[in-house]
Amino acid sequence: MPDHDNSRMPSPDGTLRPGSDDALRPALDDAAAWHALAPLLRPYLPWTSGAMRPAGLATVLDDVWFRTPAQVVELGSGVSTVVLARLLRELGTGHLLAVEHDDSWATRIQRQLDRERLSDVAAVVRAPLRPHVRDWDDTGWYDEDLLEAAVGQQPIDLLVVDGPPAWQPGAEHARYPALGSLAGRLAPGARIVLDDIERAGEREVLARWQQEHDVVFDVHTAAGVAVGAWAGT
Ligand SMILES: C[S@@+](CC[C@H](N)C(=O)[O-])C[C@H]1O[C@@H](n2cnc3c(N)ncnc32)[C@H](O)[C@@H]1O
């Protein structure tokens, strides 16, 4: 990110420098990120392979800490939603809207937010996937009316794109509509984080976003995310 260095890897002997392509770097970054996240990991959360990697989530949390965004929107809810909400509560500022297409998953995440009395800082919005004019491969997009109603008039300061699921063959570009669909709601200078950037589909989505919008992304390879700053178009 332009306003701070997110690198967490110490390089005491100079062999693992920030920006290195070393194959161990993602695992080491994740281990370092777990330490940084530790104060936010209680009570227990089930960290499955569907969740953001610790290093990617730490990148998002760092942005929240440094920039204190008023409105955070996360596409694709999960344990990341709960951890983000815990940080917002601790900071005492900002609100998170997590958009979820899967009704039963939405119920689980909302229940955890309720259990931890986090409902004043975070909410899960249920928005089923529907055919959408911006679909790349007819994979569908979150119901636009529900999405717009939930986001409301307050500009989005941080957009985390980790849904809809895009790992299945044929759904690799499922996240492409995110930027076109929410462009009009992004605040100038808003940060946009795209997860799973190691996958070919997300790389192709990123390339199209950069062609079609005035936004340039930094790819944080080891953390598995790309981070862009919205210029306003
Ligand atoms: C990449 S996941 C989103 C993960 C979330 N942002 C996180 O880091 O925890 C995309 C979708 O997969 C589904 N999902 C996520 N975690 C899941 C789990 N542990 N079990 C079942 N479905 C899950 C949800 O429908 C979610 O919207």
Largest sheet: 7 strands, mixed
* Global Rg: 17 Å
Write down how many β-strands occur, each being a DSSP E stretch of 2 or more residues.
9
Report the span from N to C terminus. Answer: 20 Å
The small-molecule ligands in this entry are:
S-adenosylmethionine
CATH homologous superfamily caption? Vaccinia Virus protein VP39
Percent range for helical residues?
Answer: 25-40%
H-E string: HHEHEHEEEHEHEHEE
The figure for the number of domains is: 1
Strand share of the residues?
15-25%
Number of H- or I-type helical stretches: 7
Q: So what's the CATH class?
A: Alpha Beta
Mean pLDDT reading: 92
What would you call the structural class?
alpha/beta
Please characterize this protein's 3D structure.
This protein has 233 residues and is of the alpha/beta class. The chain has one domain (52-229): Rossmann fold. The chain contains seven helices and nine strands. It has helices spanning 25-37, 54-67, 79-91, 103-115, 144-151, 177-182, 200-212; strands spanning 71-75, 95-100, 122-126, 129-130, 141-142, 156-161, 186-195, 217-220, 225-229. The strands form two sheets. The chain has a seven-stranded mixed beta sheet, sandwiched between helices. A two-stranded antiparallel ribbon has the order 4-5. The longest helix is centred in the N-terminal third of the chain and has 14 residues, at 54-67. The model is unreliable at 1-16 (pLDDT under 50).
